[in-house]
Write a structure and sequence with these properties.
The protein is of the alpha/beta class and 349 residues long. It folds into 2 domains: 1-44; 73-345, TIM Barrel (Alpha-Beta Barrel), CATH 3.20.20.70. 32% of the residues lie in helices and 15% in strands. Strands 3-4-7-8-9-10-11-12 form an 8-stranded parallel beta barrel. It has a two-stranded antiparallel ribbon with strand order 1-2. Helix 6 packs parallel to helix 7.
């Protein structure tokens, strides 16, 4: 006890206290830095908040569901209009086959390009092939100059060769491309992505970050991808999830009308690009009030029953050129699909 009351004891206690305080301050600074760094990975949904690191490959193909987006004052049959879009010459756009019959390839199928080629060639009455070439996670399944992430589950060079081979053999090729869900590019371009009021990225219920449809860089990014695919041999680019998501958690300086205009502008740029370079622009599982396809393009559906095929046709009849402008991705042999385009899953050995 006397030691601690002595001069030397007090000096040692003082030094120990200073050392402890410095260590505590260092820990506080380290924790603050860690929180700031991890803030970009903090995800808020309507139910919970958690950290997510999404550079890895998704375990399965993202499911598609109808988000039920509706634009005020619009019904099906009211195609999106664009400034200076008084006329469009369909003769400048490559028109797809009159009767779409073929197969679709998921990213898992593309892990065996040679098997895909053999199966396609063995498929009777096959004139069209749809390939999934970009996922909601932002993974590209071909060699792209605009990819933030290249999939590790496929050989992108082999997929490029498959596309070139199919094009040379005369197949009509449709690329399935995720539009605004793109986790990889969102993480690399946070200012061009949908965010929360805290500045963290907004994530949908399936675990994907979304790009801001109103952002000019995002729109140009989609145009660059579409043009690159056309130059590779793709005849038509079909964009999935082409809408502005609805969530009260998204911090965005826009109302429903502004968001509709943003989607209209993005679709207009892509359709104009397609008209200029002679490829078609289509939309997969379109939402109510969404854009109409370009001349020669299609509306594609992944989860329609045969009993609803005619009703789907009636719903979209005013914005398409005919029954073959609808393509159903289905393995069903229901004859009620026959008047429309049909793509079935590939049968690999």
């Amino acid at each position: 006890m006397r030691f601690f009351l002595s001069y030397r004891g007090k000096l040692r206690l003082k030094r120990a206290g200073i050392g402890l305080l410095c260590a505590l301050l260092a820990l506080i600074l380290l924790a603050a830095g860690l929180v700031i760094y991890l803030g970009r990975y903090l995800v808020f949904t309507d139910e919970e908040a958690y950290f997510s690191f999404l550079h890895q490959e998704p375990s399965e193909e993202p499911s598609l569901q109808d988000p039920g987006t509706d634009f005020p004052g619009l019904e099906y049959g009211d195609p999106i209009a664009r400034p200076d879009d008084e006329s469009q010459d369909p003769g400048n756009v490559q028109v797809s086959p009159d009767a779409i019959r073929g197969v679709y390839l998921s990213y898992s199928d593309l892990s065996d390009p040679s098997g895909c080629l053999a199966a396609i060639q063995a498929t009777e009455n096959c004139n069209t092939v749809l390939l999934q070439l970009k996922s909601n996670a932002g993974n590209f399944y071909y060699n792209s100059n605009f990819a933030a992430a290249i999939s590790q589950s496929v050989d992108p060079s082999a997929v490029n060769e498959l596309i070139v081979s199919l094009s040379e053999q005369g197949y009509y090729l449709i690329a399935r491309v995720s539009a605004f869900p793109d986790s990889a590019w969102a993480l690399e371009n946070i200012s061009s992505s949908l965010q929360l009021s805290s500045g963290a990225l907004w994530m949908d219920a399936d675990g994907y970050y979304w790009l801001d449809p109103a952002d000019a860089d995002v729109q140009q990014h989609l145009c660059s991808i579409a043009l690159e695919l056309h130059e590779l041999g793709i005849d038509e680019v079909a964009f999935s999830d082409f809408y502005f998501p609805e969530s009260e958690n998204i911090a965005h300086d826009s109302d429903q009308t502004d968001r509709y205009i943003a989607i209209s502008a993005a679709a207009g740029l892509l359709i104009d690009l397609g008209a200029e370079h002679e490829f078609a622009v289509s939309f997969l599982d379109p939402v109510q009030g969404g854009p109409a396809p370009s001349a020669g393009g299609h509306l594609l559906f992944t989860s329609v029953e045969g009993s609803d095929a005619a009703q789907t046709h009636e719903r979209y009849e005013s914005i398409i050129s005919g029954p073959q402008s609808l393509i159903f991705l289905t393995d069903s042999r229901d004859t009620r699909f026959e008047p429309y385009g049909i793509l079935r899953s590939i049968e690999l050995e």
